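Posting this for the archive.
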Amino acid sequence: TGIAAGANNLVTTGADGVLRSWAYPINPARTIAHPDRVLGTTLAPDGKRLVTAGADKVVRTWAFPAGTAERQFAGHAGPVTAAAITPDNTTVVSAGDDETIRVWNAANGMQSAASGGHTGAIPTLAIAPTGQFAVTGGVDGLVKVWALPAAAPKTFVHPDAVTAFALSPDGNRVLTACADRQARVWNQTMPAAERA
């Protein structure tokens, strides 16, 4: 149900709880057994660590491409729908059906912050290339920008559920897709959509 891409690798995930690792050019997939359905996955910018969001309420990190389990981050009250890691590999951020954003120390697995910034599930999350903020999109129609370490978010309001988003390479703009069939471009310094 998801894809994470790196410079030389691609990871696909499915409802069967299996992660498949592909090298460029595409060769036969290598599989990584996961304890439950994988709802989201992100490959660290350096391509050496994979982060998974599980239906079993747990975030996991894996050495990549070896597929060796590294650490588990438990604390969500419902399925974890998205997770990502900062470019310096020190912080993991997760979001879930429990309407919370959680920030974790990647080295020791301890939760350093939690916030209930959305009303409803949070299916999308990304960390800026600078590692200075995370962006979440919720079924409540809100896109929120969270300073890292966690602080009160900047909010971009949508008329319906946010279905996907992407960050510009410099992290200054957020492109959002909404259930109202509109794509919007948001500038971090402006409260309204730059383009709709």
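The chain has a mean pLDDT of 85. The chain has no helices and 20 strands.
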